[in-house]
Amino acid sequence: MKKEKLSCEQARKISIVKALAFLGHLPTRNTEKEAWFLSPLRSETQASFKVSKKLNCWYDHGLGKGGNCIDLICELQNIAVREALAILAQVNTGSYALPKARILKVNRSGIVIRQVKPIQHPALLTYLKNRKISPVVAQGFCKEVHYTIKEKYGFSIGLKNNSGGWDLRNKYFKASSSPKDLRWITNESQKLIVIEGMFDLLSLVTLFPNLKRKADFLILNSIAFTEKALPYFDTYTTVELYLDQDKAGRKTTSFFLNNNATCIDKSCFYKAEKDLNAWLMKTH
């Protein structure tokens, strides 16, 4: 079937509310004249993204910018007008799907990886700021990952694991693409730092930037990989544990301490909080 092609004039007439719905964004308040959304362009807890149904235009009060339907799709997906028109043509016919040529990986988790690039989306940068993470640190370890799940579009901060899967996080989404695995980052150091997740890594290096050059890191991504992690310890003179303070985290810490004499529990300074990032957010 031949794909519909839209002119810019036709695309501007497509309902912004409808386009956002196809991309998985629903209004928090909807009246005859306007709709209010949590901004799809950044992280927020109170809706400040307004769509005028009469004018069919949008305005993000937090960013101080707005525009028409084409402007929004370009901004939201970081694409050119030509690509935005292709997406809006599919929205117009009710058969939205991102072009197959952009698919990088399909995996058993149902997450389709579309694009991987440096972190630059305003929503993700705001998310990092709210969690007290240095954007420079995040850029050094992570990427901005765009994906779809059952034709719903999303983007997150991603940390790639040893097997090529991604640990994905944004304000409203937490998941992992297949294959799932831990992540080993080596700087040829004699010290290994063991942490549970992406934001533990980013929190620790935000607090102590020199660690990025002076230590190796092992990110478990799941305590299911506890036993798989043990062989990595064998080549290090020191293994420092910065694990969570919940029951599962303490159990994992005890397991490592009992199975490797080089392990040291370093979690005492944040023991009043669940994890490193919770402590960082509370104290900084």
Automatic annotation (TrEMBL):
GO terms for molecular function: DNA binding; DNA-directed RNA polymerase activity; zinc ion binding. InterPro entries: DNA_primase_Znf_CHC2, Znf_CHC2. Pfam families: Toprim_2, Zn_ribbon_DnaG. Residues 32-91 form the Zinc finger CHC2-type domain. It comes from the Bacteria. GO terms for biological process: DNA replication. This is DNA primase. It comes from Leeuwenhoekiella blandensis (strain CECT 7118 / CCUG 51940 / KCTC 22103 / MED217). The lineage of its organism: Bacteria, Pseudomonadati, Bacteroidota, Flavobacteriia, Flavobacteriales.
